[in-house]
Amino acid sequence: MSTTVLATKLFPPARRSGLVARPWLLERLDGVLTPGHRLALVSAPAGFGKTTLVGEWAARHERVGWLSLDDGDNALPRFLAYLWAALPGLRVAPPAADVPTVAALTAVVNDYADRADGPTVLVLDDYHAIEALDVHEAVAFLLDHLPDQLHLVLSTRADPPFPMARLRARGQLTEIRVDDLRFAEPEAGAFLNDVMGLRLAGDDVRALEGRTEGWVAGLQMAALSLRGAPDVAGFIDAFTGSHRFVIDYLADEVLARQPADVRDFLLRTAVLDRLTGPLCDAVTGRTGSSQVLDELDRGNVFVVALDPDRVWYRYHHLFRDVLRARLLAEHPEELPRLHRAASDWYAAQHLAPEAVRHALAADDHERAGRLIEEALPEVRRARQDAMLLGWIRSLPESVVQRNPVLCIAAAWSSMMAGELDRMARWLDAAEAALQAGARDPELAATWADTEDLRTAPAMLLIYRAALAQARGEVQATVESARGALDLAAAEDHFVRGAAGGFLALAAWAAGDVEEALATFSTAVRELHSAGNLVDEQDSTVVMGDLWLAAGRPSRARQGFEQTLAAATRNGEPYPRVTADLHVGLAELDRELDDLDSAEAHLETARGLAAQGSITENRHRWYVAMAQVKVARGDFTAALQLLDEAEKLYRRGSYPELRPIAAMRARVHLAAGDLVAAEAWVRDIPDTVSYLNEYGQLTRARLMIRRGEDVQELLDRLQADADGRRAGSLLEIGVLRALAHQTRGDHAAAQAVLRETLDAAPEPEQYRRLLLDEGLATAQTTLIEPLTERELDVLRLLDTELTGPEIARRLYVSLNTLRTHTKRIFTKLGATNRSGAVRRARERGLL
User: Fold this and answer.
1) CA separation for the pair 660, 645 (Å, rounded)
2) C-alpha gyration radius of the chain
3) Residue 303: is it exposed, middle or buried by C-beta count within 10 angstroms (0-12/13-18/19+)?
4) Nearest 5°: phi and psi at 67?
5) Cα–Cα distance between 376 and 500 in angstroms, integer?
6) Which runs of consecutive H residues, i.e. helices, occur in 304-455?
7) In the 3-class helix/strand/coil scheme, how is 824-836 assigned residue by residue?
8) End-to-end alpha-carbon separation of the chain, Å?
9) Beta partners for 276?
């Protein structure tokens, strides 16, 4: 379900008659339309006429989109929804919740780059309201990649965190700042006398212009105060001081000159960010608010029309701040009622973010909690995770604890933040709330009747399974997941898929990869039936890791490539899993020793990972790049990358099979720093399990380097992996061969290596494993050359003959030919026939 868009945010302020003409500033803004020009920045403190200037300029041009920003737009999905609505003539559909920001914005850039119908401008007004880093990053990406036909105009009180110096040096930036916006004496006179209807002498104009320093808001408040003032000269003499003083002084003057009912209206509607008649009626408890707004607009009393029909308005920001201060000082007891009324009105319009915000402002936490309950499905679908986390943290814990749905939402938020102990406390609270509701029907009646409530008992067990999985507690994961399945109805496909997924993850953590593959495949089908595309796509990464553990990298590659192909079909934007797929392909290419291809995939993933990667996988880009650096011999860079990976790592649903500390120890080993490697190895437990296997294999490498007997450890590791994990057996066999090689027994090394590779499902996919352990060189994968018979087969592979035809030519069975072919692929580091021929030619074998 998409974010509801307020149309009033998409209109520039309605043009007023009698504006002070400023043609030179309008001409400067025209510079943004020059091909190659990217940004016009209008930056000045409040009250200098930024929005008025840009609004007048926008009204003079076609194909100008407008977006008025506020604090609520710091949630990235909401910002993108408004961005899509604001861009004129955009032919790209709004992105789904699972689409990475970079991919979505790339589609926008490509759409406008393919046009010849003149320039398009997007105005982002009040950009200072944006504080969220991910929103800044989205706008910065758009700014960096703007085609010649698309331009940005930003109105802001503070410069945004963009590369201004670079844009300025390239001539791609127009800047209008406070000194440009100040009213000079002639403009001040035109404003005070022509627009505001005063008849001031030149000396009085000069005095006001000097004391306001050309500040438009100050001049406007002074003009409102001067209307009907008996002593103009005395007022002007008294009018002095800083902007803050001027605001307080003149606001008092403006409010004092309003009729009592208008002053009351102004104060009570100050709690609103936007004003429209029905909303103001609801808040003030009166009728006729639309007429009051119209009169304030015509009287220039600091209201700004937000749409051409003048249905929606807002107060000038400074004036609103003063009104709120006065309201708090004079009627503090009114604030909760006013906010509750606003919350009720917004809820009736199905505008949940605004309804929740006002309920929280009213300290009506019970109401806010119920609104959050009802909004949860939409918030999840829109991936407004930051908004949900902010809501939960704004509620007192006592309110959340009484509601099982809110407790589960709080637990999920804690898991996303990596706070597992806090997650456990929230799950206990959810269980206690469910039990209390069963005993107390009146308590249960306060909960929203939603699908989340119906499935809460099963989802509680799902999250208990997730917590147990994150802690490495395999049996507890299984028990919770099975309990969730027992509670799930046949139509609860998401619950069934999630529970099945955790059973598969538990089997994976226990080292039973075949069972994990079968169970996870069933779980994915349930997720598909639930229509949960995001989780179905994310499962490709897990399946890839499982196929690697099974010793079948080609199956992992097939899954990655199929999902990528589906993602780009029909020109649709990429799903969020795309970055992880490219990282997975990079790891596979690195194992094939195709380092250039691995780096290319990582570069593609780099731009997508920040916004698109699965939370638990964001560290893997750094891990994969570290492995490439190790292959290239840059151990210092590899260690630095692993440090970055450690900062991003979050324990979650996936079993921790490759601890970063163990990876760091392997880098030290590769660099020859045995002391640093031993510092970590000495602290690992001596137990043998799949969860501890990576560390034990790291220990085995250290023992081999130190000349110690490693066979007993490898025997225990092989017994644990035998029949369950072909990938593990391959690595164990390679280390057995390495141990023989280190002792100088080359014949035994070759025999063990040959036996290991013959038993592996896809030995040709593991070239880097052999290279890293010194059992291969850059020219050949094995320490032995091709046999004469293998050379005969290789020559025939370099023909048009089919496999059966080659077998008949050599008088061997097809199975025997396949054995020869597999050994040739392994020795040449190839994955297919054409690759083997190409590598053979490179090495002079053909």
Assistant:
1) 8
2) 34
3) buried
4) -140, 115
5) 24
6) 317-330, 335-348, 352-361, 365-381, 385-394, 397-401, 404-416, 420-439, 441-444, 451-454
7) HHHHHCCCCHHHH
8) 61
9) 312
List, in sequence order, the alpha helices (H) in 213-334. Answer: 216-226, 232-238, 243-256, 260-268, 277-284, 289-298, 317-330
At 218, which amino acid appears? G
- Give residues with Cβ within 8 angstroms of 337, minimum separation 6: 362
Confidence of residue 780 (pLDDT cuts 50, 70, 90): very low
Give phi and psi for 303, each to the nearest 5.
-115, 145
Residue 393: Cβ within 10 Å count: 11
Per this entry, what is the length of the chain? 846
Helix (H, G, I), strand (E, B) or coil at 308: coil
Q: Which helix (H) or strand (E) holds 156?
A: strand 150-156
| 3-class SS of residue 288 | coil
827 with 786: CB under 8 angstroms?
yes
Torsion angle, CA of 252/255/259/260, rounded to 10 degrees? -80
Residue at token pair 């918030």: 379
CA distances to 255, 819, 826 from 790, rounded to whole Å, are: 96, 10, 12
Q: String of b and e for 196-229 (b: at least 16 CB within 10 Å)?
A: bebebeeebbebbbebbebbbbbbbbbbbbbeee
pLDDT for 778 beyond 50: no
- The identity of residue 222, as a single letter, is A
The pair of structure tokens assigned to 90 is 């955009």
Question: What digits encode the pLDDT tens for the residues 161-196?
Answer: 888 888 888 889 999 988 898 888 888 888 888 888
What is the distance between the alpha carbons of residues 246 and 689, in angstroms, rounded to a whole number?
Answer: 73
Q: What is the band of 574 on the pLDDT scale with cuts at 50, 70, 90?
A: low
Written as one string, the DSSP assignment of 791-840 is HHHHHHHTSS--HHHHHHHHT--HHHHHHHHHHHHHHHT-SSHHHHHHHH
Cα gap 826→734, rounded to integer Å: 14
Q: Is 180 exposed, middle or buried (0-12, 13-18, 19+ CB in 10 A)?
A: middle
User: Distance of alpha carbon 437 from its chain centroid, rounded?
Assistant: 36
Residue 649 phi, psi (nearest 5)? -65, 135
Residue 459 burial (CB count, 10 A): 26
b/e map of 47-75 (b: 16 or more CB within 10 Å)? bbbbbbbbbbbbeebebbbbbbbeebbbb
pLDDT tens figures, 410-422: 998 888 777 889 9
φ, ψ dihedrals at 611, nearest 5°: -110, -15
pLDDT, one tens digit per residue, over 204-218 is 888 888 777 787 878
Contacts for 123 with CB less than 8 Å, ≥ 6 apart: 12, 54, 58, 64, 65, 66, 67, 152, 153, 154, 155
